[in-house]
Amino acid sequence: MISPIGPSTRVAGVIGDPVRHSLSPVLLNAAFRALDLDWVYVAFEVREGAAQAALDAMRTLDLAGLNATMPHKTAVAACCDDLTPDAEVLRSVNTVVPVGGGRLLGDSTDGEGFVQSLRDAGHDPGGRRVLLLGAGGAARAVALALGREGSAVTVAARRLDAAAAAAALAPAGEPIAWADAAAVAREADLVVNATPLGMSGDGLPLDPGSSGRAMWWPTSSTTRSTPLSLVAARRAGASTVDGLGMLVRQAALSLERWTGERAPVGVMRAAAEAAVVPR
User: Fold this and answer.
1) CATH fourth-level superfamily of 10-108+246-275
2) Which of 120, 134, 231, 277 is the most interior residue, by most CB within 10 Å?
3) Per the residue annotation, which of 72, 73, 140, 269 is the catalytic one?
């Protein structure tokens, strides 16, 4: 049963541009219902450059929690009063937690959510050889989390300086040129694609059919497209994991930061599965 929204209802939400495609309201409202919490989660379209105004509004309106997605993660980190260690290192925030007195704590749950989603899929990243494609915000969060798990992380990016910066987040991380990824992929236990490439099967510096024993690829938030690169990997016998699990897990961690309740991950995953549109 859905509780009516009333004067005591707590409001949380996500800011982004664009953001109307986000699955976060589906996941988190399902979780609030399962936990019998008088909370509601909404999406706020906030233009780039307005992160400070959004956080000022969070204080003024006493919002119970806020997520940030593209293009706001870096700007939100600069606007928070305090940052968790991960957010401080990454200079990126996807979860804002009110901590009293009008102060806001910025956190990044992307890396931890990624590792949890791997474990959900039966892959323990501890001590594994990982090839990470990309060096943007998502890749940096993944590199930091995998390094903490004891993975040997090699980062390939089109710019070697960007690869080096991401690799530095993992102990003994190693940057390589984009063109060298194929050779490393053949020896990797896990290949992680943190770029938008590979949906059509091209644009990658490697052959997914001969790369690694497991592969993780992002998925569109509102469509359940299977990248052709993952299809090739499956045909070659690799275990594959899409990005829906990470979306669920990072949202679950946000909920736990805000409410102190244990997130109903199964409920959230089921809501996500029901909401995505195959294509």
Assistant:
1) Leucine Dehydrogenase, chain A, domain 1 (3.40.50.10860)
2) 134
3) 73
- Could you tell me the residue ranges of all domains in the chain? 10-108+246-275, 111-242
DSSP labels for 113-159? HHHHHHHHTT---TT-EEEEE--SHHHHHHHHHHHHTT-EEEEEESS
Residue 230 a catalytic site member: no
| Cα–Cα distance measured from residue 87 to residue 254, given in angstroms and rounded to the nearest whole number | 13
Calculate the CA dihedral of residues 141, 201, 126, 69 and round it to 10 degrees.
Answer: 20
Task: Give 277's DSSP letter.
Answer: B
Give 89-105 pLDDT, tens digit per residue.
Answer: 999 999 999 999 999 99
- Burial letters 47-61, b for 16+ CB under 10 A, else e: eeeebeebbeebeee
Which residue type occupies 146?
L
How confident is the model over 116-175, as pLDDT tens digits? 999 998 889 898 999 999 998 889 999 999 999 999 999 999 999 999 999 999 998 999
245, 141, 132, 112: which is closest to 189 by C-alpha? 132
Q: What is the dihedral of CA 16, 143, 196, 53, to 10 degrees?
A: 10
List pLDDT tens digits, range 203-226. 778 777 766 677 766 654 544 555
Q: What's the pTM value of the predicted model, to 2 decimals?
A: 0.90
Q: How many CB atoms lie within 10 A of CB 266?
A: 10
Burial of 213: CB neighbours in 10 Å, binned 0-12, 13-18, 19+: middle
Eight-state DSSP code of residue 223: B
